[in-house]
Amino acid sequence: MALKGGTPGHTGEPMPDSWPMEPDLEAVAARWAIDPARDLVKTAN
Question: CB 3.0–4.6 Å: which of 2, 14, 36, 38 could bond 19 by disulfide?
Answer without folding.
Answer: 14
